Amino acid sequence: MGHHGWQGNPPGTEQEARRRIVEAATACLDRAGLAKTSLSDIAAEAGVTRQTVYRYFPGLADILGAVAIAGVEEFAVRMERHLTSFDSPAEVAAESVVFGVRAVPEERYLSLLLQAGEGDFFTGAVTSREWLALGARILRNVPVDWRSAGVTTDEDFAGLAEVLMRLFLSFLRSPSTPPHTDDQLRELVRRWIGPALNPRG
């Protein structure tokens, strides 16, 4: 691992190097915004060359993704808190889609994935193993009677999370014309996903 630069304080591990590049990117974004942040700016902020940054990230979009993911835990906490006000698995499923569609574009760092300038970048992030595992964890932590809906195993939660996240992604990337209101979107998801989560006798 190259140790040149780094403002005289080289990282000890590759993980530390990546973390410091992400922190440098976050500082640049906070100061100048996405439109005025380049890979060269991030390298300068970290005290390294562009070549060093490329050693850890293929391009700017990948750095933006890392910045966004660094803030995803806070987003997950807010989503969990919101979903706990709903009483059934079907309601939680519908509301998770509505919350994601409305909240992600307003998130300071998560929204960077939408603006990264590469059409499949956001799709790749949301459907990654890490994000799907996060979705499953959020659902599992919401205190509704998942067992009554037949959702009991890790595989069940993972599958439901993937369906909901892909649905959320579709509505986010390709909104209806005219766009659905929150209530319309909520009802649409309840109508077609809800029956699969109704209590089973």
Automatic annotation (TrEMBL):
Q: Which residues bind DNA?
A: 38-57
- InterPro entries associated with the record: Homeodomain-like_sf, HTH-type_TetR-like_transc_reg, HTH_TetR
The protein's UniProt keywords, in alphabetical order, are: DNA-binding
- Judging by the UniProt lineage, the source's domain of life is Bacteria
Q: Where is the HTH tetR-type domain?
A: 15-75
| Molecular function per GO | DNA-binding transcription factor activity; transcription cis-regulatory region binding
Protein name stated in the entry: TetR/AcrR family transcriptional regulator
Organism expressing this protein natively: Lentzea alba
Output the lineage of the source organism.
Bacteria, Bacillati, Actinomycetota, Actinomycetes, Pseudonocardiales
